[in-house]
Automatic annotation (TrEMBL):
The keyword Chloroplast does not apply. It is found in: Membrane. It comes from Gossypium arboreum. InterPro entries: AA/rel_permease1, CAT_C. This is Cationic amino acid transporter 7, chloroplastic-like protein. It is a multi-pass membrane protein. GO terms for cellular component: plasma membrane.
Amino acid sequence: MATIQSKDNKTIFFNYFKSLSQTPHRLRKRMLATWTPDQELNQVRLRSGADMKRKLRWYDLVALGVGGMLGVGVFVTTGPVARNHSGPSVFISYIIAGISALLSSLCYTEFSVQIPVAGGAFSYLRVTFGEFVGYFAGANILMEYVLSNAAVARSFTEYLCSAFGISDPNSWRVEVPGLLQGYNKLDFSAVALVLILTFCLCHSTKESSILNLIMTAFHIVFFGFIIIIGFCNGSVENLVKPTGLTPNGIRGVLDGAAIVYFSYIGYDSVSTLAEEIQNPPVTLPVGIIGSVFIVSGLYCLMALALCVMVPYNQIAEKASYSMAFQRIGWKWAGNIVGAGASLGIVASLLVAMLGQARYLCVIGRARLVPSWLSKVHPSTGTPLNATLFLGLCTASIALFTDLDIVIEIISIGTLLVFYLVANALIYRKYVLTSKNPPFPTLSFLFLITSCAIGFSISWKLEQQWWGLPLFGGIIMVVTAFFQYTVPCLGQPSEWSVPFMPWPAAVSIFLNVFLMTTLKMLSFQRFALWGLLITLFYVLYGVHSTFEAEEMGMEMEMAVNEVPNPSIQLTKLEV
């Protein structure tokens, strides 16, 4: 028995090294390989076995989008950004980030209506730019989800402490002296929360949606309480004291916008539920765009309420709202805020963990990760394996890692994926759908990106102000010229982004600009992550998809070439 097992292991290793020797050939075949929307909707989806159950309506989607964003943004990023970057003008940072998120959400909406599958950006990019771009975006989305969920789970502990009147947020964490700073405070309550939500999501999507709907309704009422009490008990003078509305200038406002973009993670979770909603062409636009509008308004009001209660330089970086109420003498309200914020964080985690499992499920269908991650449980209609796997990953990171370490790498990954989706929408509408030659569209996308980078460099250098009107003007002229000279034909009968290509072009510009405002350390960490996921694709993903798609296709052709397929299949098996 041991001898047979040893021979099997040797055979596996031999076959793997033989596959590695064919890597250049397989990369050429698979990197730019695309699927049609029809294949994505039917053939690929069947690999999960059972179908996901269509039980969600438009109000479920709006509630899931609002619930997914609210707890993350206000309670995690507003305090640190107001204190260290934007000052009292943090609400302007939210407006800028909200405009960028709204433009990106328009791009997401058109794709989700045309390709209503659970893969979100991964599926949209795979059918447009090919397998590797889709995989790279999907891996970054997963990284963004897991890290942000871990960070938010740790914030849950901080607000829960304030709900019980405990001022030190680390009092419920266990400090381990031997570990590195930033990784040395173990948070077991965050781990418990993640694991409980993981098991809830394994059970049913509809029941999880009802739970989220109840929590989100309570959460909006709770937001109203904070906004009203904040404005009634605050002072407008705090918006200009001690150093004005924008203490770090417009640069601080834009740096803050890039960081608070983390707050808008959540609306893309709605697009991953496309296989579980009724009437996708109507429900998806309402769910995605409606949730972004509602959340943007609430973010601005909440940020203003915080800054009128307390001068920006006295805002606490941890549990900012609870500490602000305690500073104005409303300790009991601080405890209520802690409890309400904890509930909001639970709602946002629920939605984000719902979305991350569906991304991984569809990536598993494509065979870019092990296929057992794509299985849908026949009785619950949920991607059980993907939910459990990512829940354990999130819990492991939440146990060790502080928010400050992950927040900027989350923003850069999110901005990159939204940038790619905007590019993909233009390419799909003007090349794949309209049947125009690809060169004019690719040249337009290259020029827009290059000018956005030039504008951003001019902004960074401070002295080169002439570059701002130059590159900004080029972007406007090039976009107008492209709109006039390249026809956009074959508009889909369902929902479509209006005034193309302007919304997508502005989205490209804003995403590039906001990325360049992040710190160099974020790019270094992101480069390391990009190298790791590229290595995984080269060593595993491309071989798995080659064997699943190319070799499977060859076998099917061989079977179809003979009159008796059963005889030929027997020969192949032998």
